[in-house]
Write a structure and sequence with these properties.
Length: about 325
């Protein structure tokens, strides 16, 4: 695996499990519909989503709003807490993901005030299995990882990584922090008001709804790249570095992942023709380009995908 020549996590770093909620012990379901979920890819990543709901005009597919019923989504961190205290914690998938989240949030705690003059507020990642109840409605794993602005949480079913590796052609481990950093990019957009502004723009000009969505998604990719650049500088609460090393290979894996979940690539993979009018996340080339923009500059203020001409509107 990539672990040999790829990134290394610091086994002495403290793993802050308070940044996650483990809801895998319970099913989802029920609940109101308070906002729009923002998934990692467009149009149904797997092509096997049975129930789709088009939310407003944004083109956000794949969330199954079951609207009531089902069991609750209570969290219990007991297992993950003890697992991540073991000596081999950095070898465990769960604990590695908690550390990625710790690093991403440590990055923004420093960078958001610096870049945008705004205080960072932490967002919890809810780890679920199969289905989950969220402030944005009930969702199932088919939607892929997403951010819900209504409850300020990131949602992920960790089996998504198997899908990325086996079906979507992104097997490298760095796909994992890339995905998480993208979702936290949406949280940053939420904190900065970018997300709300985009919704208003979509409503006042429905014809541009998908283009607005693409801009928002590419910016989240760019923010992920900016985090990747700063990742080796991030520390736990005691000042221990979270990453021992991050290599070019990791960054290549991030770029590869961005390429595999571009709208054009997903549409082709799902057996359809490429239809730019239906793009909601951007082409593979654009997703890679913006991840790289964030990484090369290490500066989130360079991620202005809303600037005129920043995103190609023609195709
Ligand atoms: Zn996204």
């Amino acid at each position: 695996m990539a672990q040999e020549d790829g990134m290394e996590l610091n086994e002495n770093a403290e793993i802050d499990t308070s940044q996650v909620e483990d809801a895998r012990g319970s099913g989802g379901g029920g609940g109101g519909f308070g906002g729009l979920p923002i998934p990692i890819g467009g149009g149904g990543l797997t092509g096997i989503i049975i129930t789709v709901l088009l939310v407003l005009v944004g083109g956000y597919f794949g969330v199954n709003n079951l609207g009531g019923g089902g069991s609750s989504s209570t969290s219990d961190n007991g297992k993950i807490n003890s697992e991540c205290k073991q000596g081999d914690a950095t070898k465990q998938l769960d604990c590695r993901n908690v550390l990625y989240i710790n690093s991403i949030q440590a990055y923004w705690a420093t960078e958001l005030p610096k870049a945008f003059g705004k205080q960072y507020e932490k967002s919890v990642t809810k780890i679920f299995a199969n289905r989950v109840n969220t402030g944005c409605g009930a969702a199932d794993s088919g939607v892929g990882p997403f951010y819900c602005p209504a409850d300020d949480k990131v949602y992920i079913d960790l089996t998504f990584y198997q899908l990325l590796a086996k079906q979507l052609g992104a097997p490298g481990e760095f796909a994992q922090p890339y995905v998480l950093a993208h979702e936290y990019g949406h949280h940053v957009q939420d904190l900065l008001g970018t997300e709300a502004k985009m919704r208003r723009a979509q409503q006042s000009d429905p014809d541009s709804a998908n283009l607005q969505s693409v801009r928002l998604e590419l910016q989240a990719d760019c923010y992920a790249g900016a985090w990747a650049k700063g990742a080796t500088g991030t520390t736990d609460a005691k000042g221990n570095k979270i990453f021992k090393s991050l290599t070019d290979e990791d960054i290549q894996e991030g770029i590869q992942t961005a390429g595999q979940i571009g709208d054009d690539t997903l549409q082709q993979r799902n057996g359809g023709t490429v239809n730019p009018a239906e793009f909601t996340h951007g082409t593979s080339a654009d997703r890679q380009k913006w991840f790289r923009t964030g990484y090369d500059s290490g500066d989130p203020t360079k991620c202005d995908t809303f600037a005129p001409g920043a995103v190609n509107e023609g195709d």
